[in-house]
Amino acid sequence: MRSRSTLLEDWNRVVSQCDKPAYLAIADAIELEIRQGVLKLDDRLPPIRELAKGLSLDYTTVARAYQEAQHRGLITSKAGVGSYVRIRNSSQLETEPSLIEMTMNMAPEPNEAELLARMRHGVRHVTEQGNFHRLTRYQDFGGNDDDQAAAAKWLAGVSAPEPGRRILITPGIQPTLASLMTALVGSGNPLCAESITYPGVKAIAGLLGIKALGVRCDSEGILPDALEAHCRVNKAKALYLNPTIQNPTTRTITERRRHEIVEVARRFNLTIIEDDPYSKLMGKPPTSFASLAPELTYYINGLSKTCSAGLRIAFLICPSEFESKRIASLLRATQIMASPVSTALATQWILDGTAQMCLDSIRTMSQRRQLMARRVLGDFRVETNPEGFHLWLNLPSAWDQSAFCGRLLNRGIAIASADMFCLEGTPPNAVRLSLGGNLSDERLEHTLRIVAETLYSNPPSKALKQP
After folding, report:
1. Measuring CA to CA, which residue among 383, 384, 443 is closest to residue 413?
2. Residue 234 has what DSSP assignment?
3. CA distances from 265 to 262, 289, 291 (A)
4. Which residues make beta-bridge pairs with 194?
């Protein structure tokens, strides 16, 4: 298989000699090379940005070329996964598969009639009660007394704030993380995180110019010695953790390791950002970092993973009242406020018990689906939590993650490869599958059987080699 540099030379020549628009010339080149057998089924094409740079074209032109190739049925593309050849030659054109989306880590959607009726009633109640215009006006940032009471009730089992500390109701975990990283780390400064971590942190750090440093881990969590080395050598400003049913590996930092991490953090006055959206899925979650080290920890929990993916409401507990006011000012400047309608609905559902019913339903469905995954994928190395709704699949040595993702994408299944989550070193040969979203149990089992079938099958020829 030729290298990426050879491909760029060949396509540069095609584009320069062709009188067609560049995007059509690239699509034609892809089609010709498939006909000639140069490009084969499941070969991964260069990322759009890389190809644009190599051909001295703008991003939009190359994106349009890939869109044209996909329209012709030559390739399959998925943001965050890549673009892969779909056919061996022009006689093997297939209809575009209906994509099964497993890259977004969404909870299973509750479908019990009684629960759906309660959810709809909550929506109607919020919009029909009292002064409707109250929901359409600017609000003070952080929530009213009812919102505070609901947030405290929701967090009671995982990380209740100390007396006198206010919970901030914010417009979702993602913007809250961005504000915390801006305030606590800042551009050009280092932030530590697990070496395999939530990709949203990678994206935010890149946008803010923050140096995201991966800390080596074992099965119990990040290694205290490795964290201490980053504190001494790199002068880390803060530590980001997704400590319970971690996305993507599903691992939960053990109680013992949590105490060891806190000891290092206290010694170096290291701020902890605890991103904790999954802990309420566990019947007996471990002690939160906010409970172990409240003076160092900014704790975030939300409803998108345990109630409804579209309910972008999060709860933030800061180490002190002063810090609550400081972070509230920053969030107010960038986000104005959490949506009053969403906040009122979250409060309604928590106080009337609907949110707990959603959580119970999601936990039950997740447990059932984990058993299904264990049954279907039992011959392979799968890491999971029985109460979570994603799994980490370590691939057999015959497969590499790029080829595996490409093969499944060509069969209409989009999954997330390990390189999306890796902060340092060579990514493990693994993928993450979400078991939630709007998939029914029947369709999920069918999808998992395709995954297993693919694992048993022969890998394709190696994808395009790096130069």
Report:
1. 443
2. S
3. 5, 11, 14
4. 215
Amino acid in position 354: T
Measure the CA–CA gap between 355 and 363, rounded to whole angstroms: 12
Q: Are 215 and 226 in contact (CB under 8 A)?
A: yes
Q: Judge contact between 172 and 334, C-beta under 8 A.
A: no
Domain ranges of the chain: 4-94, 101-109+357-456, 131-352
Q: pTM for this one?
A: 0.81
Q: Element (H or E) spanning 175, and its range?
A: helix 173-184
CA distance linking residue 430 with residue 408, whole number of Å: 14
What CATH number was assigned to the domain covering residues 131-352? 3.40.640.10
Contact 188, 209 (CB under 8 A): yes
In angstroms, the Cα distances linking 119 to 58, 136, 339, 360 are: 47, 21, 18, 14
Specify the amino acid at residue 185. V
pLDDT at 83: 82
Q: How far is CA 340 from CA 236, 274, 329, in A?
A: 37, 25, 18
Amino acid at position 13, single letter: R
Give the pLDDT of residue 92: 44
pLDDT at 2: 66
